[in-house]
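User: I'll paste a sequence; please echo it back and then give the predicted structure.

Assistant: Echoing your sequence first, then the prediction.
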Amino acid sequence: MSGHSKWSQIKRQKGAADVKRGNLFTKMTREIMIAAKQGGGDPEANFRLRLAMDRARAVNMPKDSIQRAIDRATGGGEGVQLESVVYEGYAPGGVSVMVEAATDNRNRTVPEIRAAFTRHGGKLGEAGSVQWLFEQKGVIEIDATGGKADEVELAAIDAGAEDVETDKGLVTVYTAPKDFEKVKRGLEAAGVHAASTELSMRPTSTVRVDGDTAQKVIRLVEALEELDDVQAVHANFDIPEEVLATV
């Protein structure tokens, strides 16, 4: 399992997202708005919107807040011009970083992201500088700590999964973007409940970092994730599990 996947798992176990629930709801609102703006406000006809709504419900975002976000994006409420932007850069140790943002003001967002990179020993790069090192995948994570990991793996393969990883009871299922919904529904039909589902960027290769460099990489990723305009951060680091556990 790549270090970044492991880092995501550790954050969920610690409940880090709950520490800043207001910040998390802001990110969910923007994710819903971008999805609704791009594909319309009907979740039955817009898979990305349906996925964003599922993610919002998973963190207990109120139903009224979800609907208000859809209305704002589709002209039924107070309008706001959000755009989805990807920034690319480098963390210490030669680690490549992709930052997905949703912003109504690039002149605010770019300096904030550049400052986070600089402050933590990284550098904001040019468009296209690292994106070629990542590929979009559907990612479905299942808690199988009850000892049913093998059954979950088989169900995922039967549903059309591209790859399956298992680590200490956590099963991570990867799919091609076009097969994401089919695999998700196949798992649900098999009685498998997903802990999280998302379209994400998976690195095609990883960079091993350790010691102080690993600490700097984690601090940079955390600093970027805490920015209001940042929706997701993807990086191709591979950090030893014992180092991650001390962060």
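Strands lie at 83-91, 95-103, 123-124, 134-143, 163-167, 170-175, 196-203, 207-208, 230-235, 237-238. DSSP finds ten helices and ten strands in the chain.
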